[in-house]
Amino acid sequence: MAVELAFIQGTSYSIGVALSFASISLLLFTGNMYLMLMSLIAMVFIITAMLAYIVLAGWTLGAVEAVCISIVVGLSVDYSLHLGHAYTHAGFGDRKGRVKQALEEVGGSLLAAALTSMGAMAVLCMCTIWTFVVMGSVMLLTLTWAILISLCTLTAALTLVLHSLSIYIYIFICFVLPTILMFPIDTPSLSIYI
């Protein structure tokens, strides 16, 4: 029990530190506070989804899972950072033109990078050693969420008007909608978590 509590405390601390450094990096590289906040929301969603996956899979938080969660933070910021950097340095003045140019410049390479990484993780999921299966499945889902959020919801949010309303729309797209789709209300196994 003490070991699991130490894993939980250490993992929570590493998530906080990693999110802080990722936010500072995003702010330094893009110079855009709004983009940093949207990417931070996306990272928190991806981490939350992975923690929910670990709980719903029935795994306990051990050394492998703790390392996986620490890696999730880095994987969740990668695509958002590249897309945000391309968006910031796009030559167009309006948001739609900047998003289009950013997607033309880095969209294909981001998708190719995600697909090759997901292919490697799919191979790990077929291993007989449990450590590789856990690492592969967590990383595969993380990469899937990260590329979908970067290429779909982040670009949609960047295209929206930069008012306070758009951040609420983004939160709805990232958190509420996937939660509704992932966890139907009539799921009996979730009743123990509510």
How would you portray this structure in words?
The protein has 194 residues and is mainly alpha-helical. The chain has one domain: Multidrug efflux transporter AcrB transmembrane domain (Multidrug efflux transporter AcrB transmembrane fold). Helix content is 82%, strand content 0%. Helix 2 packs parallel to helix 6. It starts with a helix and ends in a 12-residue tail after the last helix.
Arithmetic mean of pLDDT: 79
Topology-level CATH name = Multidrug efflux transporter AcrB transmembrane fold
The helix fraction, in percent, is over 70%
Amino- and carboxy-terminal Cα gap = 23 Å
Q: How many structural domains does the protein architecture include?
A: 1
* Tally of helical runs: 6
Counting helices, strands and paired strands, the structural category is mainly alpha
Radius of gyration: 17 Å
CATH superfamily: Multidrug efflux transporter AcrB transmembrane domain
State the order of secondary-structure elements, H for helix, E for strand.
Answer: HHHHHH
Secondary-structure arrangement, i.e. CATH architecture: Up-down Bundle
User: Hey, roughly how much beta strand do the residues contain?
Assistant: under 5%
What would the keywords be for this entry?
194 residues; mainly alpha; Multidrug efflux transporter AcrB transmembrane fold; 6 helices; disordered C terminus
Offer a concise description of the structure.
With 194 residues, the protein is mainly alpha-helical. It contains six helices and no strands. The C terminus is likely disordered.
